[in-house]
Write a structure and sequence with these properties.
Distance between the termini: 41 Å
Order of helices and strands: EEHHHHHHHHHHHHH
Strand order of the largest sheet: 1-2
Structural class: mainly alpha
Strand content: under 5%
Largest sheet: 2 strands, antiparallel
Shape: globular
Number of helices: 13
Length: 259
């Protein structure tokens, strides 16, 4: 009888007395997410989006280039921190910032700085969301959600790599969903780090030739990643990331048929 008794905790959530962990809700868990949401709101309230535009870059290109030449380490650090903030606060302008990295630092260094910034920024949002909602959602999830979560967790790296490689999924969404599915932090970081490399290199490479584009009074094509010659290889890489899942599934069936 005692196995079926559920007591009401001080936080208002019920929990079994059979040794299961209580999913506690605390207002302090929401603080990191509240800060990130507040930053996103402030970004638009104070019209800070105008600073992530090609017009600003074009007007200040000489100053930025000179600053990088004279203060390379400081400039690289500022750029990386800025990229972390853009991704963590889910601000628009990540593509423009990636092009700026290629313009200011070149393809190799620009790609490294962008990948590091994007990975840290995405991880910041992931940890904030997981801290705020992960445990509570896990406790309240139904059977169908639990099955989906378990299936995702078993092949988390492959699934995440697939989502990162295909550019049709919003970056902020791919940052949040794994947090709600309770994906391990190490798996999330590694899949993010590897998965964003191809797309980052594409944008940074375009940014490396941004000077000529600005001289011609034009704006670069932000939709270049959807060109077939770029998109098809990315789709191919994404499908390759699913090979381990298919192998497990079909090898499992084969083992079952033999037994």
């Amino acid at each position: 009888m005692e196995m079926g008794i559920r007591e009401l905790g001080a936080d208002g959530m019920t929990t079994p007395e059979n040794g299961g962990q209580k999913a506690r809700f605390s207002i302090w868990r929401l603080l990191p997410v509240a800060l990130l949401v507040g930053g996103l709101v402030a970004f638009f309230v104070f019209d800070l989006d105008v600073y992530l535009s090609f017009d600003i870059l074009s007007d200040n290109r000489d100053f930025l280039s000179q600053y990088v030449a004279e203060n390379f380490v400081a400039a690289a650090l500022i750029y990386t921190i800025g990229y972390i903030a853009v991704i963590a606060f889910s601000l628009p302008g990540g593509a423009i910032l990636s092009l700026t990295g290629g313009f200011l630092f070149g393809i190799a260094i620009g790609s490294v700085l962008t990948i590091v910034g994007a990975t840290i920024g995405a991880t910041t949002l992931f940890v904030a969301a997981k801290t705020a909602f992960g445990e509570v959602l896990q406790a309240r999830a139904g059977a169908a959600v639990n099955r989906m979560r378990d299936g995702f967790q078993k092949n988390a790296f492959s699934y995440l790599l697939f989502l990162r490689l295909i550019p049709v999924f919003p970056f902020w969404l791919v940052n949040l969903v794994p947090a709600l599915l309770n994906i391990p932090l190490s798996v999330y970081m590694l899949a993010t780090l590897i998965g964003i490399i191809p797309g980052t290199v594409v944008y940074v490479s375009v940014g490396n030739g941004l000077g000529a584009v600005l001289d011609a009074g034009r704006s670069p094509d932000l939709g270049i990643i959807f060109d077939l010659e770029i998109l098809l290889p990315l789709i191919g890489l994404a499908l390759l990331s699913l090979v381990p899942i298919l192998y497990k599934r079909f090898s499992g069936k084969a083992d079952g048929e033999q037994s």
